[in-house]
Amino acid sequence: MVITSKLFLLTLLTAMFMACYVTNARPLHPSLSLIARLKLDDESPNCWQSLIQLQSCTGEIILFFLNGETYLGHGCCQAMHTISHQCWPNMINTLGFTSEEGDILEGFCES
Q1: DSSP of 8-36, one letter per residue?
Q2: I need a labelling partner for 62 at 20 to 30 A (CA). Which of 15, 47, 76, 79 fits?
Q3: Which domain holds residue 70?
Q4: 62-79, pLDDT tens digit by residue?
């Protein structure tokens, strides 16, 4: 019984030590503001505006894939270009499109 309680106490102390060690937060660089981390300054591409523009083109994009219509407006293609070349790589996935569909749209807009 004594060995079991000592083993339990040792396990408990080890688990508490590991929990404290693992949960230490990594230091953030205070020089980087939220605006800088999200690339929202004036010189950076406007990723959020392009995403909203692309969201408004969803009807055209659905018809493009569903019916095989070969028309996407200039605004849609411009938003697609900005997102695929100047923003985060998986940003198109936030609208529910797969990476393959994003590649098809990008290829159509660049041709």
Answers
A1: HHHHHHHHHHHHHHHTPPPPP-TTS-HHH
A2: 47
A3: 2-110
A4: 888 898 877 888 999 998
